[in-house]
Design brief:
Elements lengths: L1 H32 L4 H9 L7 H11 L8 H27 L1 H34 L4 H26 L5 H23 L9 H17 L1 H9 L2 H18 L5 H9 L3 H25 L5 H25 L2 H28 L6 H34 L2 H23 L4 H8 L5 H6 L5
Helix pairs in contact: 1-2, 1-4, 1-5, 1-6, 1-7, 1-11, 1-12, 2-15, 3-5, 3-15, 4-5, 4-7, 5-15, 6-7, 6-12, 6-14, 10-15, 10-16, 11-12, 12-14, 13-14, 13-16, 15-16
Length: 443
C-alpha cells in the first residue's frame, strides 16, 4: 500500500503543480505588471470552479461506468492532460488580454476553462481512488502522504519558477510555465502506472450493471438529494464552503499584496509560496504525531484559530508597513493551513458511504471548487471596490484579510455541530468497534 500511497501523492502533486503558476505567479503578473483589474483576474482564475458541480456527476458516473476495466484511471488521465494544456496556454492568453482585450478574453476563458475542467475530472477521481485503496483506517495516513508530496511539489515548483523568472519577460514566463506543465505530466504518468487494479470479475461487473440500471431509474438528482437529506452532510458542506472561502480567498491576492505593500519583485513574491509550503510540511509532521492522540476535529479547530491569527498579522503588516510581521503571518498561515487541510480532508473521507464513494467525494469536491470561486471572485471585488473608495492600494487587501478571519470564526461555530458518528448513524452505517471507542475522543 505504501507504493500506491506514493503514486497517489504523485497525482496530487502533479495537479497541484499546475495550480502554482496560475494562481501564484500569473495572477501577480496580470494585476501588477499588466495592470489588469483584480476582479477580472479573479474571475478568470475562478472560472474553472464554475464547473465544480460536474464533480458530483463525474464521481457518480465513474462509480458505475468503468472504461476498459478501470473506474478512475481514464478520468484522471483526461483531467491531467487538460490541466497541462491549461498551464501551457494561460500565460499566452494573459499577454493577449493586455494587447487585444476581447480576443484575449475569449482565449482566456477557453484556456482557464480547460485547466478547470481538467482539475475537476482529476481531483474527484484520484480522491475517490485514494478512499477506495486506503480503506477507512488508512485515510489519515494516505492524506498525509498525498499532501506531503503535494507540498514538496509546490515548494519545488515555486522555487523553480522563481529561478526561471529571475529576469522577468513575457518569453521567460511562457518558458517557465511550459517546464512546469511537462514536469506535472511526467509525475502524473508515474502515478497512474499500475495504480488501480483492473476490474475483471464478472460478478462484480454484473453488480455494477444492476446498480447502473437502478441509478438511471432513481435519477442523478434523486441520488444527490438523498445524500444531502442527511443533516450532517448538509452541515459539513456548508462548513467546508465557509472554511475554504476564508482559507483559499487569499490565493490570488497574497503575492500582489506583497508587491503593492512592500515593493517585492516577481522573483521575491514567487518565493512566498515556497515559504508557505515549508511551513505546511512542518504542520504535516505535527498532524502525524497528533494522529491517534488528538481528534481530527480538535486539530481542525487549532488550524482555524492559527489561520485567524495569521490573517490578522498579514493585514496588520500592511497597516504598519512591517515586512517582518508579514512574514510571520505567512509562516503561521502555512502551519495553520496544513493542520486545517489534513484534518478536514480526513473528516471528508470519513463522511462517505461504501458504494457511493465517487458521489460523496464529488459533493465535497464541489464544495472545494465552489469555495474557490466565491473566495477568489469575492476577494477580487472587495479589493477593487475598497481601493476605489479609499484611493489606497493596500487598504483593499487589508479588508479582505480581515473578512477572511471573520469567516473562519463562523466556520468554528459550525464545526462544533459536526460529528462523523452522527453522520454514520443517519446514513444507516453501523460503526465498527474501533469507531465506537473513538466516539469518546471525538470532541
Amino acid at each position: 500500500m505504501y507504493i500506491k500511497r506514493v503514486q497517489l501523492g504523485f497525482l496530487h502533486a502533479a495537479v497541484a503543480m499546475t495550480l502554482v503558476p496560475i494562481n501564484s505567479t500569473l495572477n501577480r503578473v496580470m494585476i501588477k505588471e499588466l495592470a489588469l483589474s483584480a476582479t477580472l483576474v479573479a474571475i478568470l482564475a475562478s472560472l474553472p470552479y464554475l464547473f465544480s458541480p460536474i464533480q458530483v456527476f463525474i464521481g457518480s458516473f465513474s462509480d458505475q461506468h468503468p472504461i476498459l476495466g478501470y473506474r478512475r484511471t481514464p478520468y484522471i488521465a483526461f483531467g491531467l492532460i487538460l490541466c497541462v494544456l491549461g498551464v501551457v496556454l494561460t500565460p499566452q492568453a494573459a499577454l493577449l488580454i493586455a494587447t487585444n482585450f476581447w480576443l484575449g478574453l475569449v482565449v482566456g476563458i477557453l484556456t482557464f476553462g480547460a485547466w478547470g475542467m481538467g482539475y475537476n475530472f482529476a481531483a474527484v477521481s484520484y480522491l475517490s481512488l485514494a478512499s477506495e485503496l486506503s480503506g477507512e483506517k488508512g485515510h489519515s495516513r494516505t492524506i498525509s502522504v498525498m499532501f506531503f508530496m503535494m507540498i514538496v511539489g509546490i515548494i519545488l515548483t515555486a522555487l523553480g519558477l522563481s529561478r526561471l523568472l529571475e529576469s522577468y519577460s513575457p518569453g521567460a514566463l511562457e518558458r517557465a510555465f511550459f517546464v512546469v506543465a511537462m514536469t506535472a505530466l511526467f509525475l502524473g504518468v508515474l502515478g497512474l502506472i499500475r495504480l488501480e487494479p483492473r476490474t475483471k470479475d464478472r460478478t462484480e461487473s454484473a453488480a455494477n450493471l444492476a446498480a447502473d440500471v437502478a441509478e438511471k431509474r432513481s435519477g442523478f438528482g434523486s441520488q444527490l438529494r438523498a445524500i444531502f437529506a442527511n443533516r450532517q452532510v448538509t452541515l459539513f458542506f456548508i462548513y467546508l464552503v465557509i472554511l475554504l472561502v476564508a482559507i483559499l480567498g487569499q490565493d490570488i491576492l497574497l503575492e500582489p499584496y506583497a508587491a503593492e505593500a512592500f515593493g517585492m519583485s516577481v522573483q521575491e513574491t514567487t518565493r512566498i509560496t515556497a515559504i508557505w509550503g515549508v511551513c505546511f510540511l512542518l504542520s504535516l509532521v505535527v498532524a502525524g504525531i497528533a494522529e491517534g492522540r488528538v481528534s481530527k476535529r480538535s486539530v481542525a479547530k487549532i488550524g482555524a484559530w492559527g489561520a485567524i491569527l495569521a490573517f490578522l498579522l498579514i493585514a496588520g503588516s500592511g497597516i504598519l508597513l512591517n515586512l517582518v510581521v508579514f512574514y510571520l503571518g505567512v509562516v503561521l498561515l502555512g502551519l495553520a493551513t496544513g493542520l486545517a487541510t489534513v484534518s478536514n480532508l480526513s473528516l471528508m473521507l470519513d463522511m462517505t458511504v461504501a458504494g457511493k464513494v465517487g458521489l460523496f467525494i464529488g459533493a465535497w469536491g464541489m464544495a472545494n471548487a465552489f469555495s474557490r470561486l466565491i473566495g477568489s471572485v469575492g476577494s477580487g471585488v472587495v479589493r477593487d471596490v475598497t481601493t476605489q473608495i479609499s484611493q489606497n492600494q493596500v487598504a483593499g487587501y487589508v479588508i479582505v484579510f480581515v473578512i477572511e478571519a471573520a469567516l473562519l470564526i463562523v466556520s468554528l461555530v459550525l464545526l462544533q455541530r459536526i460529528s462523523v458518528n452522527v453522520f454514520r448513524k443517519q446514513a444507516g452505517v453501523e460503526p465498527t468497534v474501533v469507531e465506537r471507542a473513538a466516539m469518546v475522543n471525538e470532541a
